[in-house]
Amino acid sequence: MTDLADLQRRRFLSDSARWAFAAATAAALPSAFAQPAARTDNQVLARVRGGRVRGQREQGINVFRGLRYGADTAAYRFQPPRAELPWRGIADALAFGSAAPQGGKEAPGSEDCLFLNVWTPALGDGGKRPILFYIHGGGFNNGSGSDPLYDGSALCRRGDVVVVTVNHRLNLFGYLYLGAMGDPRYAASGNAGQLDLVQALQWVREHAATFGGDAANITVFGQSGGGAKIATLMAMPAAKGLFQRAWTMSGQQVTAAGPRAAAQRTDIAMKAAGADDIDALLRLSPAALLAAGKARDPSRVENSSLYVGPVLDDVVVPVHPFFPDAPAQSAHIPMVIGNTRDETRAFLGNDPANHELTWDTLPARLEQEQYVDLRPQRVIDAYRRMYPQYTPSQVFFAATTAGRSWRGAVEELEARARQPVGAAPTWAYQLDWGSPLDGGRFGAFHTLDIPLVFDNAGQPSSRTGDGPDATAVAAMMSSALIHFARTGDPNHRGIARWEPYDLPRRQTLLFDTRSQLADDPRGGERELYRQAPFMQRGTF
């Protein structure tokens, strides 16, 4: 079996040779990244390991967009990341770099996607500010660090922190498992996207002082797929010591994909692409490889395109992230695990029929969407006992939220609570405040906490509105994140006393216009879903 340390050693030697060659010939090397830009009084300069970079000052915050932390991945598709080549002159860091190849709003993307973005109040002043490193959602398939909701300026102004967002390889480019095919170069391919994040964290630690931050105080935070990536990092030996705190929002990764299941999905993708071996995969265009990822997944939990995500490969990910226990290597890391009360209204709330369900139509609809191996009528009966005031549609959204997302948060929270005495605390939250837009029909939907923790309520895409309640909740949540990053404890004067989660109380802070602490606020649902085996989507 290939040893990760050996892989990293060979990668280091290869990168060292590349850097030595590049440094010796830098004057002769063109650099698309180092194109000149018009000079203004707002431009700021910094030196990173690849050379000098030009950012700009925006409303008192220094912003660097599109900073390279790794080389173009096209030449080593499916392999661990390499260091970026140095450049001559001053490289512009004024625009976001390319996202990974994907569909959707970031399409088409590029394999040259290892970029990050930095917002900081000051440069090289010895300030030792907490660093907030955000990992985007979109599952393991889509997204980037350039969404306007991830703008770090407001957090910098509110809390004197450094904010970083990141792009990395996704979908088949970042998580296609080729480890069973015998070529040691691809032993880590099922977790290449995770190794990109490791390299980005290493880059941030190396350059913390340059950007006014503290290399010994890095908080990773992420929503949905970003939270799942963080949970996985917490179980990866390569990530050990790269961050000191973790904050996840509506994103869990209790188990990784087993190598057998991952290899089966690889076989499906290769057949869809007409590829017989790794060399054939390497010859595919990015568009053709993306198309192969749309093949139907035979998973019994969801009928969709191929699941991709972290793989239990014994190389990068040696243990499941939170099964059967929380990762021992991260027991000393304080953690916040949160969710929103009405997660699935974001996915299922756009269908008017889901707001008009009857007790007769609810069972069949729940059968399609609940993601839990319990009879729908059993679930319905339980919800009617727990919440007799609920309409059929309210039962539908509550049950799908609990089965699809919230249950994984409970698994992680309880695993953390079972760790030995002396382990770092974990805090739980639920966002109860709902968006007032659309007549309030979407409630506290999945992603609503993003603009709140970034203090970006009121931005056009936030769907929070710009009223005083949105502003107040954003102040509560963003201040909690900042206090957590600075001290390891999210408590501050603007919220109710937030106690760590323990057993059997299961303390949870409910964020609303007035926050409150509740013990086991969804205990009936927790007991209901305990009766069904937990199934991480796509990992079996």
Summarize the structure.
This protein has 15 helices and 13 strands.
Could you characterize the architecture of this molecule?
The protein is of the alpha/beta class. It has helices spanning 4-24, 153-159, 171-175, 192-206, 225-233, 259-273, 278-283, 286-292, 345-348, 362-369, 376-386, 392-417, 449-453, 468-487, 523-529, and strands at residues 43-48, 51-58, 61-68, 90-92, 115-120, 129-135, 162-166, 213-223, 245-249, 335-340, 426-431, 507-511, 516-519. Strands 1, 2, 3, 4, 5, 6, 7, 8, 9, 10, 11, 12 and 13 form a 13-stranded mixed β-sheet that branches.
Which range best describes the helical content: under 10%, 10-25%, 25-40%, 40-55%, 55-70% or over 70%? Answer: 25-40%
Assembly form of the protein: single chain
Unreliable residue runs: 1-39
Mean pLDDT: 91
Strand content: 5-15%
Largest sheet report: 13 strands, mixed
- Give the class from helix and strand content and strand pairing: alpha/beta
Rg over C-alpha atoms, rounded to the nearest angstrom: 23 Å
The total of beta strands comes to 13
Please trace the helix and strand order, writing H or E for each element: HEEEEEEHEHHEHEHHHEHHHHEHHEEH
Q: Which geometry do the CA atoms define?
A: globular
Measured between the Cα atoms of the first and last residue, the distance is 22 Å
Number of helices: 15
